[in-house]
Amino acid sequence: MKILDVIRDERLTLSFEVFPPKTDAAFEEVLQATEEIAALKPSFISVTYGAGGKGGKYTMEIARRLQNADGVETLAHLTCVGAGKEDVRAYLTAMKDSGIHNIMALRGDLPEGMTPEDMKRSAYPHASDLIREIRSMGDFCIGAACYPEVHLESAVQAEDLRYLKEKVEAGADFLTTQMFFDNNLLYNFLYKLREAGVTAPVVPGIMPITAANQVRRALKLSGSFMPRRFTSLVDRFGTSPEAMKRAGIIYACDQIIDLFANGIRHVHVYTMNKPDVAGAIQSQLSGMRGRTF
Ligand code: FAD
């Protein structure tokens, strides 16, 4: 099944993201977590690609198992920064041979030591270059990243939107957002995106923050605006792991319910490989998930 068909479904649906291990030693533990998340039967699972282009073999292995053994539709991420054409083509062929037809096409963050000039000289300087390559290799459903709060390297939103449009024209079928903690940022972004002539479906990505130490990391990765309503939760409950986890789950559910109430039908949840968090979100939304309104 194509992810595009999941997104177009009239019912309210959820999908989950997992990330692969960094080492062989952590493989079994991550696999166990991803299988528990798969047992929740989300409408699909995305498997990220190791930062700096590392860890592709684990992405492939986990994606393969989810797709074929667990029977969950899988979206495998692929980054192109620093990658050669032969490797990318071989990877895509292996994905296709494993029955994986949904690829999230990303540039990736520049690895340490790589300058913007090095990047421009590389085989695929931007995600749009990778998208063109994937499109030329057959019938993949292709996702791409978008940034309601503007990508950290873009000077202004208009520039970011111009390049986003290029990604869709290159062949991206849908867009998934960076995490955000204030839904108004998404609604403003959607308005500007449509005004810029981009009609591809947008899947909001929601990150449940369930531990105080996740806040700094999330901020560093995404530069996301943290509303006072959210930071108050961390101030109040951050020192109590159980209370912070509940508050983070409820905050994420509140965001998702507001998205559903405002016409969004599909939401992607960044689970951070936590089956209990994924399961709690799913059960909070029972009665809505899988239904049309
Ligand atoms: P691009 O689309 O290439 O954009 C990067 C920057 O370059 C933007 O500022 C853009 O405006 C600009 N730009 C784009 N095209 C051009 C052009 N032709 N000329 C000049 N400027 C241009 N990282 C991982 O390592 N692994 C993952 O699995 C992963 N998954 C992600 C999933 C989602 C949903 C999101 C939102 C991000 C993910 N990331 C992942 C992080 C992502 O790799 C970084 O944000 C990276 O810095 C940009 O990737 P991109 O695909 O958006 O790049």
Helicity, as a percent range? 40-55%
Q: Approximately how much beta-strand content do the residues carry?
A: 5-15%
Taking pLDDT < 50 over at least 5 consecutive residues as the criterion, the unreliable ranges are: none
Distinct bound molecules: flavin-adenine dinucleotide
For the termini, the CA-CA separation is 24 Å
Report mean pLDDT, rounded to a whole number: 95
Structural shape = globular
Number of strand elements: 9
Radius of gyration: 18 Å
**Secondary-structure element pattern, one letter each:** HEHEHEHEHHEHEHEEHHHEH
Structural class: alpha/beta
Q: Helix tally?
A: 12
Largest sheet: 9 strands, parallel
Strand order within the widest beta sheet: 7-6-5-4-3-2-1-9-8
Salient structural properties:
293 residues, binds flavin-adenine dinucleotide, globular, alpha/beta, 9 strands
Give your account of this protein's structure.
The structure is a single chain. The chain has 293 residues and is an alpha/beta fold. The chain contains twelve helices and nine strands. The chain has helices at 3-8, 27-38, 56-68, 85-97, 116-120, 127-136, 157-170, 183-195, 213-222, 228-237, 241-261, 275-284, and strands at residues 13-18, 45-47, 74-79, 102-106, 141-146, 174-177, 202-203, 205-206, 266-270. Strands 7-6-5-4-3-2-1-9-8 form a nine-stranded parallel β-sheet. Helix 10 (228-237) packs antiparallel against helix 11. The longest helix is centred in the C-terminal third of the chain and has 21 residues, at 241-261. The chain is globular, with a radius of gyration of 18 Å. The model has no long low-confidence stretch (mean pLDDT 95). Bound molecules: flavin-adenine dinucleotide (FAD). The site of flavin-adenine dinucleotide (FAD) has 24 residues, from strand 3, helix 6 and helix 7.
